[in-house]
Amino acid sequence: MVRMSYPCRHRTLWNPCTQVPRPLSFSPAPDTNNLSGQAGSYRQLVTPLFGRHRLSLQYTFSRDKMPGILPINDLPRLVSAAFSRALAQKELTFYSTEVTVLTLGGVPFQVRFAPGLSRKPEPGAAPAAPQPPAQAETNPYGILKADEYLVEEVNRQHRLEARKARMLANDVFKNPPEALRIADLGPSHYLVLNKFAIAAEHFILATNEFKDQDHLLEKDDFAAIRACIDAYDNADGGDGLFTFFNSGEFSGASQAHRHVQMIPISRMKDGLGSDSPWSVVADMLTVKDKQFGTITAHLPFTVVARNTSGMDADELHRTYLDMYQKGCMVEATVTLHPKHEIEPRLEGPSRISYNLAMTKDTMVLLPRLSDKIHLQDAEGKPLGVKLSVNGTILAGTVLVKEEHDYRVIQKFPRALKRGLERIGVPSYLYPGPLSL
Description:
This protein is of the alpha+beta class. The chain has helices at about 75-90, 150-170, 220-235, 265-270, 315-335, 405-410, 415-420; strands at about 40-50, 50-60, 95, 100-105, 105-115, 180-185, 190-195, 195, 205, 240-245, 260-265, 295, 305, 355-360, 360-370, 370-375, 380-390, 395-400.
């Protein structure tokens, strides 16, 4: 059994009042997928399907060996062709955007205004869910009084049940339109276009069978993610692939069916000048002096980052579990919730809400405490701007639906920085790398 020293267990918690950090200790997660042998034999096929090409992988494997996923070197072309075709056939909606780049704490963030997004169709009504009791009052960082934890837990269960009911009533990945499908990726996943795209060629990796978005990712998920990243890395003339995963009620996730979103980085630069300072934030966070580190410099929120260059699916999965455990520790330092007195399970439901981002060289995890931000000026006066934030924030991207909000953010960029501090653990409350 892996033993971790959790801050609540030994009462060595971060004290926001005194702002004196206490040392935390961390033990790496075990290898829960200690499998040996090769995956078997594969054939990559491209076959005509309804007047277009669809990619599939045929595979054979022995009963005691897990199948792998071959690189798909032609994936960028397949995605581009599928996107152009679906757009021409009006099978998807592509929203035009206006973009500006704001430097927040020395880090360039792009703010994209999509005028048409406010008219995006809303999902159908979900079955009625029980109304939760009144919520306990919390401070800005979610810290409750001791006698309010039980009330908050009951409220949380009601919220999760209602959220899950809404999502399951509108599972867009159960049977997506054939015109949006791109490829079958191995035995467990497939690729599909995002029906409502802000960035061109935005596509999604989804599981064939239903798996819960709020459960921890598994090794085959990382095999599929790595195959897609490698396909874009091997393509000529591209900038690579940005992938992100939203998990938990505060992450910005809108579907219960497990899916990882993917955007070609070159398409994230659409509308930016050649001299734009913007680049993917996740790739700025590579830790050079330690294997793991909590990156706080210049970012409004605390994240955990790791250089993952050259890692295979096994290594990526182990790294992810290590980072997830550390993300739980980061949240524990400010929420003081009793749930953190027990070390987290490494499978099944996630203890925390978080965003995960992966590029060719980097994995970043952002523990989340809120899914929305309300902007205020320096005196705390509301500016009338409410934003939802998902995993694209780890690329350095903020999406805005209303022109009023867009103009306010341009006028008060520091208000955006203050707002982003509150989506997770503010970096000014967590001033250094954890002791390992």
